[in-house]
Every structure is written in structure tokens, then in C-alpha cells.
Specification:
Helix content is 30%, strand content 28%. With 273 residues, it is an alpha+beta fold.
């Protein structure tokens, strides 16, 4: 276990040192297990390690509850401190791709970083936070949260495969989710242009699609470009709430390729570039 953990840390360091695209290459180390199986791997009161994919930082947690996903708490004040550093020193609902290390298993997951509800451990963490796995659902819905799902695919190295089969509307959903989570890896993967995402994403406090009419799938089979009508509510730093009504332009180079978003035109229209 110890040897494998060291190997993963070295791989993460090397991959992120080479740039954001390299993260998908670690998938051979990670399992994307369904929640029903993970529920038995990390039962209530079990302890395990959370490894943040992007920073390489890891901390220990204990599962305390949760029936549709895992409700967990950092094990000690030291673990809470590490988790807060992962989130830049400020608790957040933003989703992050993680690897759960339990004994000899490495499992793709997604966490948010906001303490809520009850907490029982002496760890300086006011409540618990949630970890989702493939097939996990939130308290309010019977479906996977899109952002959690994308982070699980990212952690498992299967995000590019998912997007290669996504419809134009699923692509737009994923693109907006990447903006919402301020995730440069997702944004870069879907964007037609390779951009410096850090300053762009830093302006976006929140974003959601309020309207997106969907055409039947059979009407899109032979298309290689299209304009998707869309309405979006933004919360932009120093600008407050903004509403966008317009189109997102998508292209693909053949009917076998993944759809890409014309980020240049979309971001310029929203004064984010």
C-alpha cells in the first residue's frame, strides 16, 4: 500500500509538471467502481485516504454516514488543514476529482469542500462533506450530479472517452459545468481553442443554464457544425449577475470526432476574454 501510494504521487508530480492534459494517462491505476460496490468497500466508520488529483495532496477521512453517497469527515485537525489548503484556504461547494485509497484499491471519486450538517470528530471541521462515486446521487435527486460525474470520469482517466461520444447538448452541459467548477482541464478538453483559463475561470463565481432547446438526435447525425441556442445566468466577479441569451457555436472535424466549443466567440460575447 505504502509503495503504491508513493508511485502514484510520483506519477502525479510528473504528469502535472508536463501540463494539464497528461492527467488522463494515469487511468490504468484507477478503478471507476459503481456506488453499490464502493458502499461495501468503505462501510460506515471505515477510514481511508483522499488524494486530490490536481494538487497531489492527500488527507485521511472517516466515513460517518450516507446512503446514496459517502458522508465523511477529516480524521484530525491536520487532515482538515490539508483539505482546506486544497481549496485555496476557503471552503467551497466546488467539485474536485479525487482518488480514494482504501487498502490496496484506488477508486475514482469526486468531492466538494463545504462543511455542512453534523460532525462528530475532534478535527476542527464543522460538519461533514460528501464524496461521490459512479452512480452516486445527491440528497435531492435520483440522478448523478453532472459536475460530480465529470470529476469521476476525470479521476478515472475516462473523461475524454465520455466526451468523444457526447451529443452537442451534453457537450455544452459539460462545458458550462467545467466553467462553474473553475476546472481548466475540463474547459481545455472541450474548447476548440487552447486558452489561458486561469484568469478567465477566476472571474466566474457561478453559472447555470436556464434554457437550452434540444433537437432530436437523428437530426444531428451528419452535422459537423451547429449553433446551440442557449440562455445562461452568470455571477461574474465585480459585475454581479449577468444574463446571456444567444448561441454557443460547436464544430467537429468529422462525424466520428468529439464536438468542440468555439470558446473565443462565446467568451468574448460574455466579456470574459
Amino acid at each position: 500500500m505504502k509503495k503504491k501510494t508513493i508511485v502514484v504521487m510520483v506519477i502525479l508530480f510528473l504528469l502535472y509538471g508536463q501540463g494539464i492534459h497528461a492527467a488522463t494517462n494515469i487511468s490504468y491505476k484507477i478503478e471507476m467502481l459503481p456506488w453499490e460496490e464502493v458502499n461495501n468497500v468503505i462501510p460506515k466508520y471505515s477510514k481511508f485516504t483522499v488524494l486530490d488529483l490536481e494538487t497531489g495532496k492527500k488527507f485521511k477521512v472517516q466515513r460517518r454516514a450516507g446512503s446514496h453517497h459517502a458522508d465523511v469527515q477529516p480524521l484530525t485537525p491536520k487532515d482538515t488543514k490539508i483539505m482546506k489548503k486544497i481549496y485555496g484556504g476557503k471552503w467551497s461547494w466546488k467539485r474536485r476529482a479525487i482518488i480514494v485509497i482504501s487498502k490496496d484499491q484506488w477508486i475514482a471519486g469526486s468531492m466538494h469542500g463545504m462543511p455542512h450538517g453534523a460532525g462528530a470528530l475532534k478535527n476542527n471541521f464543522p460538519g461533514h462533506f460528501c464524496i461521490h462515486f459512479f452512480g452516486s446521487t445527491t440528497h435531492r435527486t435520483n440522478a448523478m450530479d453532472l459536475s460530480h460525474m465529470l470529476m469521476i470520469f476525470k479521476a478515472s482517466g475516462k473523461l475524454e472517452e465520455y466526451l468523444s461520444k457526447a451529443s452537442p447538448y451534453e457537450t455544452v452541459d459539460a462545458y458550462v459545468a467545467g466553467l462553474k467548477q473553475q476546472d481548466a482541464f475540463i474547459s481545455n478538453l472541450i474548447s476548440l481553442q487552447k486558452l489561458n483559463w486561469k484568469p478567465i475561470l477566476g472571474k466566474i463565481e457561478n453559472v447555470r443554464i436556464t434554457r437550452m432547446p434540444i433537437l432530436p438526435a437523428e437530426d444531428l447525425i451528419n452535422e459537423i457544425s451547429m449553433d446551440v441556442p442557449i440562455e445562461i445566468d452568470w455571477f461574474i466577479k465585480n459585475r454581479g449577475r449577468q444574463h446571456y441569451r444567444g448561441e454557443i457555436h460547436l464544430i467537429r472535424f468529422s462525424t466520428m470526432d468529439a464536438w468542440k466549443v468555439d470558446s473565443d466567440s462565446f467568451l468574448k460575447e460574455n466579456e470574459l476574454k
